[in-house]
């Protein structure tokens, strides 16, 4: 029944979209090349607008919805991403489409504990210090609990950034954190600035993925790392059926019940289906100029982490 | 004589097979260049070298000693980023593997401070002008750094032994007796650990992790084989295996003794090494002695039996 439902809706939407496109071209002026919004076909400008509206409306309930849709597993996925990054103190992270700050907070925690371990090791080495040196080291610790690490959270949506800033204040994250409004396709940063660029569950919503990848390449330092956490293609057929069932039947309902917004979560589920699978995304990342591009499937492909280096 | 010739041929084949088996690691090409290499790499340097077809360089690998499983001089897959008029000049970028080797080599100087960890690799990457995130290219437990170091040491040892051999061939130096040769070779190799001796126990434990055992075992056996080769081992029978097994045991135990040796310039370790090598030499003699003693005993018994039977027949005749 589910399999029958999806293509029907898709055909319906596509027919409507094709008609709209026809009218658009008849008017003699298209507002940009055609692209997809979920299973609909829209122009690029329209897509950007629609996605902005989606996230504007879900911003306040974003975290709650994440927890309920993925049954809390998204926290594990994000933990795995930061663990894979293995940032050392002094790393500069750019988290794009980082809205509510999940990755940024995890990064800060990780770097803080790494820094503590580093300091402990240093202290163990220096067993016989004078009182002067000990007091100096304590002063140094206070000012550098993060060890010069910094994270810049960049998002295109003001509402998401607002929610993120509130969360940061609430949880007590103050130093080493910046919030910037920006478009992933056109980042407001200089070349060769960041050590790591992450985009978690955001690249799906970017209209021109190739531009975003090129921007990522531009702002990374030589040797810098690109990490992308995103829903991807499930290779296990049985799991795929269950996943489809859950996605199209349960998630929009949850969206309506919890966030009062069926359409946004319908878009979410459809956008996951339209997103290129692992190998294709890997090829796109390589096209942008990254080397040693690799991906790791989590939960047999429900989510995948792609990694590449600017060499 | 026919049997001896066949045995020699078999031994030669076995040795060649051994080399082939180690050499096949040379051809593991994990690296596939991306389809569209339109972007000039930001970091990989231009490496211009003379036209050297892949086949001939691999031939060299067979004849000389493939002593490490990650050859540093082999240019893997030239990147076609610039094909101008000068088709003759093969200007290539260095491969990712070569860059990784450079990073690991740079990381070695930070090992005494940070240990064999991803942090040392990150510091190494920083000295090359790369971001610290480049350490993400490697495993987070530092295995690659240790394996790189071990293979570097093995290469250095091979070069040292080859130089010595050249001197002997030219007549500038005396050929050392086997036990002294082995002693000097093992000592030279172990001395390379001295700058990192504090963190070496950590490295040994990482090398024993299951996913590292194939590589570390490979490096160890190839090093031991090198030493015996330069010691002039021409055996074609079971001795080939015995000798390598014995020397591996000597090397490993000496390494462990070195870990907890606190004498000046590790004198205790070298004395331990001397004793073990002497034991190993004696073992060969003892085996021979046992054999000849056994033969003598059998002959004596045979003689006694013949005497007894002669006495018996002579008594019956009379």
From TrEMBL, chain A:
InterPro entries: SAM-dependent_MTases_sf, UbiE/COQ5_MeTrFase, UbiE/COQ5_MeTrFase_CS
One function term, GO molecular function aspect: 2-methoxy-6-polyprenyl-1,4-benzoquinol methyltransferase activity
One Gene Ontology biological process: methylation
PROSITE patterns: SAM_MT_UBIE (PS51608), UBIE_2 (PS01184)
SUPFAM superfamilies noted in UniProt: S-adenosyl-L-methionine-dependent methyltransferases
Alphabetic keyword roster: Methyltransferase, S-adenosyl-L-methionine, Transferase, Ubiquinone biosynthesis
UniProt superkingdom: Eukaryota
HAMAP family recorded: MenG_UbiE_methyltr
Quaternary structure and partners: Component of a multi-subunit COQ enzyme complex, composed of at least COQ3, COQ4, COQ5, COQ6, COQ7 and COQ9. Interacts with PYURF; the interaction is direct, stabilizes COQ5 protein and associates PYURF with COQ enzyme complex.
Function: Methyltransferase required for the conversion of 2-decaprenyl-6-methoxy-1,4-benzoquinol (DDMQH2) to 2-decaprenyl-3-methyl-6-methoxy-1,4-benzoquinol (DMQH2).
Protein name: COQ5 protein
Organism: Rostratula benghalensis (greater painted-snipe)
From TrEMBL, chain B:
Pathway: Cofactor biosynthesis; ubiquinone biosynthesis
Main location: mitochondrion
UniProtKB keywords: Lipid-binding, Mitochondrion, Transit peptide, Ubiquinone biosynthesis
GO molecular function: lipid binding
Stretches for region Disordered: 49-98
Keyword field contains Amino-acid biosynthesis: no
Tagged with keyword 4Fe-4S: no
Location(s), subcellular: Mitochondrion
Transmembrane segments: none
GO cellular component: mitochondrial inner membrane
Domain Ubiquinone biosynthesis protein COQ9 HTH: 96-126
Domain COQ9 C-terminal: residue ranges: 213-284
GO biological process per UniProt: ubiquinone biosynthetic process
Residue ranges, compositional bias (Polar residues): 54-70
InterPro entries attached to this UniProt entry: COQ9_C, COQ9_HTH, Ubiq_biosynth_COQ9
Family stated for the protein in its record: Belongs to the COQ9 family.
Assembly and oligomerization: Homodimer. Heterodimer; two heterodimers of COQ7:COQ9 come together on the same side of the lipid pseudo-bilayer and form a curved tetramer with a hydrophobic surface suitable for membrane interaction. These two tetramers assemble into a soluble octamer with a pseudo-bilayer of lipids captured within. Interacts with COQ7; this interaction allows ubiquinone (CoQ) isoprene intermediates presentation to COQ7 and facilitates the COQ7-mediated hydroxylase step.
Function, in words: Membrane-associated protein that warps the membrane surface to access and bind aromatic isoprenes with high specificity, including ubiquinone (CoQ) isoprene intermediates and presents them directly to Coq7, therefore facilitating the Coq7-mediated hydroxylase step. Participates in the biosynthesis of coenzyme Q, also named ubiquinone, an essential lipid-soluble electron transporter for aerobic cellular respiration.
The protein, known as: Ubiquinone biosynthesis protein
Organismal lineage: Eukaryota, Metazoa, Chordata, Craniata, Vertebrata
